[in-house]
Amino acid sequence: MPFELPDNLHPDCAPVAWMLGTWAGNGHGDYPTIDAFEFGQELIFTHDGRPFLHYLARSWIVDGDGTKVRDAALESGFVRCRPEGRVEMLLSHSSGFAEVWYGSAGDARMEIATDAIARTESAKEVTGGKRLYGYVEGDLLYAYDMAAMGQPLQPHLWARLQRR
User: Fold this and answer.
1) Residue positions forming the annotated binding site for heme b
2) Binding site: which residues?
3) Which positions are annotated as binding heme b (predicted)?
């Protein structure tokens, strides 16, 4: 699907402008403390002319035929764009934790790692993360490594999403 840069794109957002829009597709999840699973997902990145993107993600567990079984993760936040491709990301999760991420963007990719994580009393223990987003053959590919529940940082989620 063709993509056009918005007229009001803030210059600091240029390295992540390829992310703008709605993306949807399927992914896989795995972790030592949970069974492997398949999921559907939608990511939405919007921009209003200021130096950040608003981000909303929702996912759902699917069965082997791709049929929705139940709702899953929901997260919202902001990709704050800084000069020279630096990025900050603020994320809040429906499962009860919030994160601050730092990293960089450029050459159709964004790589970030957690700096701080806060959680509610009922949330699972998440102690670290690393995310890589890339624009590959017109699709958004991402991988999320997580440290949680006493486990070291390791692969947790990966997906390939198409622009809608």
Assistant:
1) 33, 124, 156
2) 33, 124, 156
3) 33, 124, 156
CA dist., res. 143 & res. 85, Å (int): 20
Residue with tokens 């991402």: 142
Amino acid at 103: G
Residue with tokens 């929705």: 68
Measure the CA–CA gap between 153 and 130, rounded to whole angstroms: 8
Contacts of residue 107, defined as CB under 8 A and 6 or more positions apart, other chains included, come to none
Distance CA 164, CA 138 (A): 11
Supply the DSSP symbol for 7: T
Q: In this structure, is the dihedral angle defined by the CA atoms of residues 118, 124, 130 and 131, taken in order, positive or negative?
A: negative
Cα 31 from Cα 49, distance rounded (Å): 38
pLDDT tens per residue, the chain (164 residues)? 567 889 999 999 999 999 999 999 999 999 999 999 999 999 999 999 999 999 999 999 999 999 999 999 999 999 999 999 999 999 999 999 999 999 999 999 999 999 999 999 999 999 999 999 999 999 999 999 999 999 999 999 999 999 99
How far is it between the farthest Cα atoms of the chain? 46
